[in-house]
Amino acid sequence: MNEELQKLQDKIVVLLRTVYDPEIPVNIYDLGLIYDVDIDDANNVTIEMTFTSPSCPAADFILMDIQMKIESIPEVNRVDINLTFDPPWDKSMMSEEALLELGFM
């Protein structure tokens, strides 16, 4: 990844760490809900992600928050979010910080 794309990737991760499920006091990135962030040559961003449950009541809110925040980055042309439940999320995908915050360590 070239330096410009790496800087854009870093900006995206910073913003993803500001997105929270209203019911969980940990951001979606550290929860392990983000599986992949791909940036193409035209600065179109594709985010592959999941939820802790397919029936997440805050799904629409979270998706809208991600969309608005990533689109606010001037270098980003377009944002596409792909939801997947394969592999299904489990707590092993959480960062150490998230595990500590939620009392799993």
UniProtKB/TrEMBL annotation:
Which domain of life does the UniProt lineage start with?
A: Bacteria
Q: Which residues does the UniProt record annotate as the domain MIP18 family-like?
A: 10-80
What Pfam families would the database entry show? FeS_assembly_P
Q: Which InterPro entries match?
A: Fe-S_Maturation_MIP18, FSCA_dom_sf, MIP18-like
Gene3D superfamilies in the record: Fe-S cluster assembly (FSCA)
Q: Which PANTHER family match?
A: FE-S PROTEIN MATURATION AUXILIARY FACTOR YITW (PTHR42831)
Q: What is this protein called?
A: MIP18 family protein YitW
Give the organism, scientific name: Petrimonas mucosa
